[in-house]
Every structure is written in structure tokens, then in C-alpha cells.
Amino acid sequence: MNTGVFVLLATLLVVAALGVVLARSPIRSALSLVVALFFLAVFFLLLDAQLIAALQVIVYAGAIMVLFLFVIMLLNLQEHPAEMARAGLRFLAGTLASLFLLATIYFTNRSGISNAQGMGAIPDGFDSTAQIAERLFTQHLFAFELTSLLLLVAIISAVVLAKKKLA
Amino acid sequence: MADNATILATLQSRFTSGIERSDIYRDDASVTIAPEQLLDVARFARQEASLSFDLLLDVTAVDYLGQQARFEVVHHLYSTKHHHRLRLKTRVLEKEPIVDSVVPVWVGANWLERETFDMYGVRFRGHPDLRRIYMYEEFQGHPLRKDYPKERRQPLIGPGSPQGNYQPAIPEIPGLTHVEGLLGAELMRVQLGPSHPATHGTVRILLDLDGETIVNADVQVGYLHRGFEKECESGFYYQAIPYTDRLNYSSAILCNVGYCMAVEKLFGAEVPPRCQFIRVIGGEIARIADHLLCVGATALELNAFTPFLYALQARELIWDLVNAMCGARVTSNFVRIGGVSADLPAGFADQCRAAFKRLLELVEDTEGLLLENPIFRARMEGVGVMSAERLIEYGVTGPLLRAAGVDLDLRRAQPYLVYDQLDFDVPLGTQGDNMDRFLVRLAEMRQSVRIVEQCLKMIPDGPIDIDDPALRFPGKGRVYGRMEELINQFKLVTEGQKPPPGEVYVGTESANGEIGYFLVSDGTGKPYKCRARTPSFSNTQPLAELVRGRLLADMVPTFDMINMIGGECDR
Amino acid sequence: MGLEILIAAVKALTVILMVLSLAGVLGWVERKGSALIQDRIGANRASIFGFAGAGLVNTMMADPLKFLTKEDVIPTGVDKLLHTLAPCVNLFPVIVAFAAVPFGDTVEIAGRTIQLQAVQLNVGVLFVLAMASLGVYGVVLGGWASNNRFSLLGGIRGSAQMISYELGMGLSVVVVVMTFGTLDLQEIVRAQGHMIGGILPGWGVFYQPVAFVLFFIAGIAETKRVPFDLPEGESELVSGYFTEYSGIKYLMFFMTDFAEIAVISALVSTFFFGGWQVPFLGDDGFHFGSTSMALPKLIVVLLQLASFMVKVLFFCWFQIMVRWTMPRLRYDQLMRFGWKGMLPVSLLNLVVTAVVIVAFQEWRV
Fold first, then answer.
1. Are B196 and C238 in contact (CB < 8 Å)?
2. For a tag on chain B, would you pick the N or C end, based on fewer CB atoms within 10 A?
3. What angle do CA B214, B219, B225 make, to 5 degrees?
4. Among C342, C351, C211, residue whose Cα is nearest residue C272
5. Closest residue of B to C321, CA-based?
């Protein structure tokens, strides 16, 4: 991958990600997240993973974030800078995020993905939809089914909650 | 149907002391009651089986300036069961103009009493929401009082606020029922109108939305208020006819007819048969125009643009007919006191038949695009439902009430002109939803076509005017030819027709329901009081209740089927 | 390398011009077509030296000029950045989506094989769906950034509607993908080149009629046109999400509307009507059973291009017809139709297709 392109995209991605955290208006924050996800999709494209890129845009940018925006607009959320978070909570969140970041860096280093040798050549048939599907339904079938079960539970609980509130 | 004497006798036997005066004048029964008895009499009139005055048509007041009991509050009642009428009058003092509100008896009194308060300053004890209705809150005085000069101008904006610097207050909905939406979300206050594509009559509808659901609603009328009554009272009787055109401007002739009939009733005169037929023909043609507009506009608001244009194309044919009759299209000013402005032109019958043939084709096209369309049906069926009892309580009349299955059409119930000689059906609905209202209007158009075709066959030859010099302006030929006629013409123009003192009420079936004129004559050439009871006003009142709890999109067809005509509602 | 970029640029430009000019033509078709339906004359006022061109001068020149010269009003109290961004965000995905649509087979010019497709993607179907799903942002942003409650309601309606109908759309596309076994749009079109039993073209619509109906309905819903024009809903919401727009920004929303019609028509043609395929036309000419008619390659390519355009224009016209015939749905009816009508049917269609494909492997195209 061209380093120049990478640096440019990475900068934009980081700026967008910062926008998520720093924007005061919830709408702007959500939109920054959309932009960040979009750049992430471009990264996937640059890594020759067209399928993942397309799915990234469809699922995250196209569906999930739209729901976020929908809820923000429906509930008419406004800027509430004063009551954003209490100091203690903010400290806790900051600490957790930092720990998570450190852990990521540590494990990435240890696994050796970061150095160029670790990447290796792109295997034949990489990102072919058929191959991904085959892996998903054989090797990772258990995880796949578990995820769908989890989603099902989430859907049922959402319905139950909504019914209760309406009744 | 109990006759007037029986009604008065029933009331007198029940209320021995409260009734100050009762009389029958020109077939109108009226009783004057003591203010403290008003609520009891109202309740009795409504509940007593032989009376059952379930429809409150109108509440207004007459200002007898200079008398101690200055204001006379007038209620007009109608019984949908017995089809008889009664006028209740209550005198209140100038110092303390307060009477009991009859809202507990008829909920439709709400707006009518607000209007009386707005116009005359009469207060109503126990009224749930006594705000001004036509004038704005900052308005000083009460415009229909006789001591309020017609010429007095007030800035249209609040006191002490020079033009352009007026900050309108955030409008409030009285009697909020909900303050919080689902999941504790804030309600969204939306102002539909006064300038909004769906409010094609300049009305403001305040809505509180929870998502898309309407939880609170308040309908605010009056943006088209032109002071109809004040204008009429300051001119001669014959000068008011063009103003009646502008009540319901989409069926002007029907408004003309009612007014002229009321003035003729003051005189105790009746127009010749040919004139009666012409009035029926004109009126029914106007009714078709009104229904076409209502039907087309409803389709338009549901974004079916094509049927709307078909309906308007059909209406164009109607305007051509009206044009042939009187030389004007919309505001026709066709009817005269004691006659009509012109006889039917030569070949009118053929022109009518040709126009109706094409019109019915266009109506079929309109129907074809809508009635079988599942989307249209889904938008109309089961929407805007209200029970017949509740509608009557609100004072709703016309197609709206007939769609709920109430057989109340004054052309049939209390036939006037030549309607008793004509063969026509009164289309009724069953559900009382918007679809029924739509179908009733479509069916009524066909009935109107039938009526006009019959009239064209039956119409006799003869004069089109009453030959009474006190009433009818003589024709040009007579004015130029004879001295007496010239003098008569001069007297009529400068002094107006002078009916004997008295008061009458005439209700006729206009396109949207009963349009009634209540005239009080003091013997001069100008009406002392000229009140128009307009159907749109009463019909618009239940809108808030009809849409509460429904989706925002349901507001639109419901409002359209009510067919609020701004000029008629706001007068 | 330079030539490659040039070819790519030419193709990209062609696509953009095609979408934009289609949008312009559709503006004319819509105005004159609605006039035809409604017994009117339609646009005929603007003319150059007395030449009105049956309304073309009006719609192609006068209308855009009018929009361009109008004041661009930005209401007070709005998020200016988002307000300006919204129409661009609205227009962008539509044009980009067109890039993946093949409008012809390969041509060979000077020994170089050129795909008549702006971008060749092996996941073209997903790319198109992704772009379609991005289209909602213009609506949402426009609604939010206008500081108007009607606009906001329009934006909310738009987001809910487009998510709901994306499901039906996606599922009906999945069925097509299963039938033809590829995610590449060009491959899908190629797979439709054969004849069923020698008489019926092997178009997707004959394999998947249900999916075609579902996709077309969902497509109209995605383009927010009658009967699904709730985000706009002018009798309720004035003009919905673009109430507060004027001038060129309004024109952009307007163009998006027409460009979306074109994209949906192109996709319907591609998925279900053989894209650029002409029945009985092979690489070298027509083949009717045993008889055949040889044609030069250039004619074949031109015929294929024309075939694609005719199909696209037909479906554009069809959508305009629908627009001028139907009333508008209500919000709850729209949701019910999407979730309780389209979704179960498309799921059922999916299951049936899967069973059939597994049971009759050889049936697979």
C-alpha cells in the first residue's frame, strides 16, 4: 500500500474519530462516526478486501448509524454540555480506554503482525465471497450461530421492552 | 314534528316563571327566558322527548344599544328527530353581560360562545375556554357592538409594539392532556398553518406530536375574518348579497339563495315559481362545484394529483354554466331579493346536458383512479370516525353528518323552494369515516345533476321576479318608461327595501350543511342584525377531537373532508 | 499507465454525464408525461426565438437557469456546514452507484479490451447496495440541518423508511445473486444471455418474478417517490426534508430524485431484464434457432447499448406513470407494508430459491 495514501487516510480517520468524541452536538458526533467508518472501509479497499469494505459501509454506515441518527432526532437530543458526565465517571472511562489502547499495542507487537514480514503474500482466492462463506459456515459455524442467537435475544428483549412501555 | 304552538306550550307548562315572552313570527317560534333559567331550559329542550332539540345551530347576540338589558343572547335549536326549530333569547344587562354557558348541554356551543364573547363581550359562566376566536388577543373592544364604529382601525399587532417589532408569543394549547411522549421524549409542537399546503383556507392548527402521533391539537380559525356581519349591518339589505357570495366562495349561489329567502321571509313574500326553479338550478350547480373541489382537493392532499385535475376540469364546466346564467364565474351575485338577476339564457338546457355528460365522465375518471385504489382506501377508511351523536352534539350538519348515517337534509326535512316537487335521494353513509364522507359527496353530485335535469324539464314559464315595488328593483325598461318606477327605483337604491320590524331565521341546505341567516329588522332599510350561521364553522370544531391520537398524516384527509371554507368559517 | 487513467477518466465522465443528462431528460419526461396523463399541455412557455422544443427549452434550460440564479437562502439558526453538505451528500451516492452498472459488453479498441462499465468490481452488487444505503444521509442531514420541524419530521421519516425498505431490497437482490451465482454485475448480465427453451430470453425476471416485484417496489421506496414519498409529503410536511432549501441546493435535491429513478431503472434492467442483452443476439449476430444473421461487432455493441438505454428509459417512464397515478401511503401503513408484507415474502422467496437450487443443482444458471 502506498505510504502517502495511508498517512493521508489515517490522518483523516483519526480526525473523524476525534470528532466523535469532541463534537458537542450529538448529531455531529454521530456523523463523524459515519465518516470514520467510511474511511475504515476505504482502508479495507486498499487491502484488497472489497467484500469487507462493502459490508462495512452497508451495515455500519448504511444501517446502524442511520438508526443512531433516527433515535437522536426522534428524541430531539440537544447539546447538554453541563450534564455530559460526572468527573468520576469520566476518569473511569478515560482509564479504561487508555488501558485498552495499551493492551492493543502490546498484543499487536507480540503477535508480530506489525512488522512487514508478518503480513506475507495475499493468498489465492482471498476475499472471494465464496471462500469467506465457506469458512463462515464450516470453520466458524459455532461462533456464527452463537452470534445470531445473541442477536435474536437482543431483538426479543427490544420487543418486550417496547411492548411494556407502550402498555 | 310538533308545531310551533305545541313547542311553546310544552316549554310554558314546564317553566311557568322563567319564560318572559314567547311568540311565533313568520313561522319562527321563539321564547325569551330569564338568564338564570337558560341552562335549565336548554337541558329540558334537549332531553324532553317531544322536543329533543339535539342540534345547537347557532349562538349569537343582538346589541340593543340604549336599553338597560342591552344584549340579547340568541340560541337557535334544531331537532334532528322531529325536524322543528326553536329560538331561545336571553336578555342580559349592559353592566354585567354574563349568561350561563350551554357547553354542558351541547359541546358545540364552545366556539359559538367564544365568538359571541369575542364579538359582543358577553361572558359565559362555566365555559371551559373563553378565549377570543376571530380577533387576536390584543384587540381592544368588541367589534359587533353597535357603539364600535365600523371605521375604527386597530393595528393588527399588539399594543405598544410598533410594526415589525412584534414577538409573537409561543402559541399555547389549552387543556393539555399529554405533556410527555413515549420514552419520556419531548413532544414536538408543530404549527400547521396559517400558511401550509394542507390548510387551504388559512387556519392554524397547533399540534403536539409524539413521533408522528397527535396527542394535543388546537384549531385556531379567524385568519379570514372580514366582519361580514358588521359590513351587512352598515349597508342596505340588497347590498349584502355580494358579501354572501364571499362566505362560501366555492358555492356562492347557495349562500345568495339563503340570504334572499331570509329577507323575503321578513317581508312575508314568496317568489314566483319560475324564479324558484332557477334558484334551485343555480344552487344545485353550485353544490356540484363545491363537492368537486372538496373531492379533488382531498385527492390532491393524498398526493393523487391527477384526479384533482380531473375534478377541476369538471368544475370548469360548472363555472361555464354559472357564467352563462349570470355573467360571473365564482362570486356570482346571482340572486336578488324577490327574484334573480337574470332569466336562464336561451339554449341553457342543452348546454347543461352537454356539460353534465362530460362532467359525469370526468367524475367517473376521478372515481376510477381513487375508489379501487388500495392505498386511497387505506388512507380514508376508518379515519376520522366520530359517532353520529357526537357529531350532532358538535352542531355538525351536511354531508359530514349524513356520512355518519343521519338522514338530515333540509331539502328533504324542511323542503323549501320547489324541492318537494323533485325526486332525489339523500345519500347516507354507514361508518362515518372519511371514505363515507367522500362517497356521500360523490353521490350528492349525481343527485344534484338529477335535480337540475328535472328542473330543466319542469320549469314553468312566467316572471322571474316578485312584482312588488317595495321589494324588487324594477327593470331598466320600466325605469326609463314610467315616472313612478323611476321614483321607486330611486327610493329603493337610496333607502333600501324596508321590511317590517321583526326577526326571522331561514336555514337552507348549502354544500357543507345548514347555512342559516338570522335577520333582525327595525323597520329601516338596513338590517339591524344580519347573522350568518355557517356550516364550516360548526363542522371545523370537532377537528381537534377527530385527529387526537391519530397520525399526523390522518389530519390531512380529515381536514379536507370537513371541507372548511375559510370565508364561510371566518365570515 | 497514463492511457489506463485516461480510459478510466473517460468512462467515469461518461457515467456522470449519462446520469446527469438522464436526470435532465427525466425532468422533461415527468413534466410532459404528467401533462399527458392529466389532459394538460405542460411546459411550453420558455422558448428561444420562438422555439419551445415541446417544452425542452423549458425543462432543460429555463428551469436549471432559474434555479441557478435564485437566491440561496440559509435559514437562521441552522448548522450551516451540514445544511450545505446535505444536498451534496444526497447526490453523491447516486452518481457513484451508477459507476458499477455495466451498460455494454466489452469492446476491443486498438487491441485493448475495454469494459463498458466505469468500475469493474467483483462485489458490484454489494457496492450498489452500499451506495443506496448511503443515500439516506442526505435526507437525514437536510431534515436535521434546516432548523424546521417539518423538515425534521421528513428526515425522521426518511431514515426509518429507507432502512425498512433496504431489507426487502437487499433480500431480493440476494435471490438474484443466488440464481446467477455471482456478485459481479457484469457477470450477472452475461449470465442472462441464453434463451430458455429457445424462445424466452434468460432474463432474471423469468427466474425470479417475485424478486423483481419486490425489488422494484423497494426501489421506488428508496427513491422516495409516490406512493412512498413520505419524507417529502408536501401536504403534511410542506416539502419535508428540503423545505428550507432554495436555488442550486434545491436543484441538487431535485436532480437526485431523477438520478435515483435512473439508477433504480438501470438496476432493474441489470438484475431482471438482461441489462444490455438483446434477445437472440449473440456476439456475432442474431440466432433464431437454426437460422442466424451475422452482424459486425460494432453494430452488436451499439444494439446492446441501445437495448440497455431502452430498458432504462422504459422503467423510468413506468415510475413516472406510477407517480401520477397513486396517492401517498401513511407512515404506519408504509412500515407495516415494509416489515409485515415485503420482508416475509422476500424471506420466503429466499428460502424457496435456496431449496430449489440445492435440490436441482443443474437448474442453476
1. yes
2. N
3. 160
4. C211
5. B306
Across the interface, whether the CB atoms of C123 and A31 are under 8 A apart is answered no
Element (H, E) at B284: helix B273-301
Which of these CATH numbers, 3.40.1350.10, 1.10.645.10, 3.90.1200.10, 3.40.50.1460, describes B228-570?
1.10.645.10
Q: In whole angstroms, what is the distance from residue C194 CA to residue C205 CA? A: 13
Q: In chain C, which residues have their Cβ closer than 8 Å to the Cβ of B299? A: 327
Express each pLDDT in B443-454 by its tens digit: 999 999 999 999
Average pLDDT over residues C289-318: 82
pLDDT band per the 50, 70, 90 thresholds, residue B177 = low
Q: Among all residues of chain B, which has the CA nearest to that of C332? A: B551
Pairwise CB contact (< 8 Å): A69 & C159: yes
Residue A126 is predicted with a pLDDT of 63
User: Could you state, in order of their start, the residue ranges of all structural domains in chain B?
Assistant: 4-125, 228-570
For the segment B524-534, the average pLDDT, to the nearest whole number, is: 90
C127 contacts A37 by C-beta, under 8 angstroms? no
CB-based contact, A165 to chain B, within 8 Å: yes
User: If pLDDT is split at 50, 70 and 90, which confidence band does A118 have?
Assistant: very low
Does C39 sit within 8 Å of B554, measured CB to CB?
A: no
Residue of C nearest to A66 (CA): C159
Grid cell at residue A50: 472489497
Tell me the three cell numbers of residue C352. Answer: 424457496
The whole-angstrom separation of Cα B469 and Cα B267 is 12
Count of structural domains within chain A: 3
Provide the residue range defining the domain that includes A145: 128-167
Cβ within 8 Å, pair A75-B185: yes
Q: Which of B190, B299, B309 sits opposite C327 (nearest CB)?
A: B299
Q: Tens of pLDDT along A32-88?
A: 888 888 888 888 888 777 788 888 888 888 778 888 887 777 666 555 555 555 677
Is residue A4 domain-shared with residue A64, that is, in the same domain? yes
Stretch (H or E) spanning C195: strand C195-196
